[in-house]
């Protein structure tokens, strides 16, 4: 790496300059600046004009914090801070603190205790830690109010499912990553390709006494919960995270492929969940018909999500993508599906489409394409924040099912394993976005 070592002064100067540039931009465009208060805008605008500056600011802040903490405090405090920050967010979520404090009002500790069913002294301890992360605030002694972050969860309830996915399902599994690596990957040239050997599977969250892969776990509803509970919550989590990225996946899908060039056409959205992508796209492209294929458990959520006016163009078909495809479509679309599967299984999913691709259809993926982090001179080419997000997604895949976020070369290798005639025609990427559109054709 050729980067010179940053100093307190150089990082502070970057912070001052970027903060100034962002403030000037907001003022010039009459955009209110986010604050910690409940009525704050949820985000800074993620426009191309200031996205780079926002990343510069956040990256410098992160480096500054590491530098100030130094090696010993940095190493010693991070395990305790990170562990309890996650645990407190989990408690707020599981005991629905979000609705125990009224939006636009305040609640006393005893009122919160009543609504969450927790003893008041515990509520005080939980909130004392939460306040430090700008999760709720004590506006006046004994009165708790929402902050921007907690109001966001209260106003976008699907976010609760995203938090639950990460903190109730993935977090306990992360504890088993080292065990999974030790048992199935250590001493080999590549990591295990078996979802049943992943950290999630061996964590066996339901205590069944055997490894359980993530998708089977989702099908097993906990006692006392309605049918499809876990599958629904997972679908909600996917919808929540789709809606919150800086560059909305809807936009990426809309702009990353020339859908209008298809004319009247059928798109199969494999693993399309409750249809949120198909529904959003159907609104933009009135000539396209969408068939969402997913596991039968998701059908009910799809039906409740589908606007009546789109019912003639967007439909659901229960379909297991490990079985041969049964619909001739113009485009087979998959969004963040193949990243869930190690190559061995991802290849089977694509292989099941081959008979139809040969007839001239397209395979369009909306997936992460892990970029190189450094150029040939060793200089960082993508922001630290984006690298952190990409590598967290990659590890989420490793923990969840022994799969991965692929680089372009990994995508090419995967397709070559299925059929050498499959060719990536184009990859459309968008600055600041973690997902790209991979447009794949079949050479006859
Ligand atoms: C990571 S989610 C992506 C959902 C959606 N495409 C999105 O971007 O929000 C993966 C989807 O694959 C579905 N899935 C898992 N195993 C499947 C299978 N064997 N056949 C069909 N769909 C499956 C899940 O139900 C889930 O909806």
Description:
The chain has helices at 8-28, 48-94, 109-116, 120-132, 148-155, 158-174, 177-184, 199-203, 214-219, 229-244, 249-256, 276-284, 299-305, 343-351, 354-357, 384-401, 408-418, and strands at 107-108, 137-140, 143-145, 265-270, 288-294, 314-318, 331-335, 362-367, 422-428, 436-442. By secondary structure, it is an alpha/beta fold. Helix 2 (48-94) runs antiparallel to helix 4, helix 2 (48-94) crosses helix 6 and helix 11 (249-256) crosses helix 12. 48% of the residues lie in helices and 12% in strands. It has a seven-stranded mixed sheet with strand order 6-5-4-7-8-10-9, sandwiched between helices. A three-stranded antiparallel sheet has the order 1-3-2. It folds into three domains: 8-154, Orthogonal Bundle (Arc Repressor Mutant, subunit A); 157-234, no CATH class; 245-369 and 406-442, Vaccinia Virus protein VP39 (Rossmann fold). The chain binds S-adenosylmethionine. S-adenosylmethionine binds at residues 215, 238, 242, 271-273, 277, 294-295, 298, 320-322, 335-337, 340.
